[in-house]
Amino acid sequence: MKLLLTGCTGFIGRELIPLLIKEGHSLTVISRQSKGKIQTIPNEQNINFIQMNPAESSSWDKEEIQNSLKSCEGVINLAGEPIAEKRWTTDHCKEITNSRIETTKNLIKSLRNLRKPPKVLINASAIGFYGSNPQTEFTEENIQGDDFLANLCKEWESSAKNKPRATRLLIVRIGIVLAKDGGALGKMLPIFRAGLGGPIGDGKQWMSWIHRTDLCNLINESVKNSAWSGVVNGVAPNPVRMNEFSNSLGQVLGRPSLFAVPAPILKLILGDGARVVLEGQNVQTQRLNKLKFKFNFPMINEAFKSILA
Ligand code: NDP
């Protein structure tokens, strides 16, 4: 299929793009960066590259992107400013929001103008949708929480739901994605390898994680399988608490997991953004079970073993 991708030059995209190419799709990759700067994109003939900022509405008027849209059969929209990398100042929160909401609104507006819209749109969201309540086990049935991230996810999803009627929509509420070259684990690994690792905060918060390979497989499956629509939680079936996450990581690495990172230190670095790491949520997926999705890595220690092999 001809697929158009936004936000696929980063941590998830760097495994997703090679998988989609292997599956025989031809890709149009949208990025704010110039092609030469992105090392993660293979130099393949069936990748068309468009440099533009998807959050700026005027970029979507360009002939190049309009032509790509006309022939595209599927869209994967993952674009968004990183959430837990910087302090949540007012400006940064605006960037976190606009990069997702404006991009999605611009994309949907362009799709609605097409005579023949794409068959499928896969749109990212996050388990932050549910807010954080340590007593609740969340499934796709739960309603949204009430904090910055929950409201952001709600608006992100509502913008995507405005897609053309003929386009099948799958929203993936993504959990903590695990791979060694980025994300939460990428940050923890050097500290653990140095023997200085340990749980963050009080260690009781839930970590609803997914191996990056499983996430890419589920996105790939949803491109081709028309039974996949609505919302799925992109999480493995066995979430763990931070203490278990960090013990298991220490064990697989053969390193101690003794040095807890106190919550106030993280709050000093990330401000309100520290809540993403300190609060967590216990998320299950009923929909992926019903769709009979087969996880390669349902257990955290198996995921770590494969990632660190
Ligand atoms: P990365 O930060 O690695 O990549 C983000 C992508 O979004 C890049 O391709 C980048 O494209 C684009 N982007 C970044 N900032 C902006 C901006 N200000 N305006 C427009 N586009 C921007 O993220 P991941 O690959 O980890 O995640 C992809 C999506 O999945 C994100 O929306 C994220 O919120 C969501 N998600 C990820 C989780 C995780 O654990 N990794 C968990 C839950 C949700 P370029 O620079 O090429 O323009």
UniProtKB/TrEMBL annotation:
List the Gene3D superfamilies hit by this protein, alphabetically: NAD(P)-binding Rossmann-like Domain
Extract the Pfam families matched here: DUF1731, Epimerase
Q: Which SUPFAM superfamilies match?
A: NAD(P)-binding Rossmann-fold domains (SSF51735)
Domain DUF1731 as annotated: residue spans: 261-307
InterPro entries to which the protein is assigned, alphabetical: DUF1731, Epimerase_deHydtase, NAD(P)-bd_dom_sf, SDR39U1
Q: Which domain of life is it from?
A: Bacteria
Query: In what residue span(s) does the NAD-dependent epimerase/dehydratase domain sit?
Result: 4-219
Q: Which family does it belong to?
A: Belongs to the NAD(P)-dependent epimerase/dehydratase family. SDR39U1 subfamily.
Q: What is this protein called?
A: Cell division inhibitor
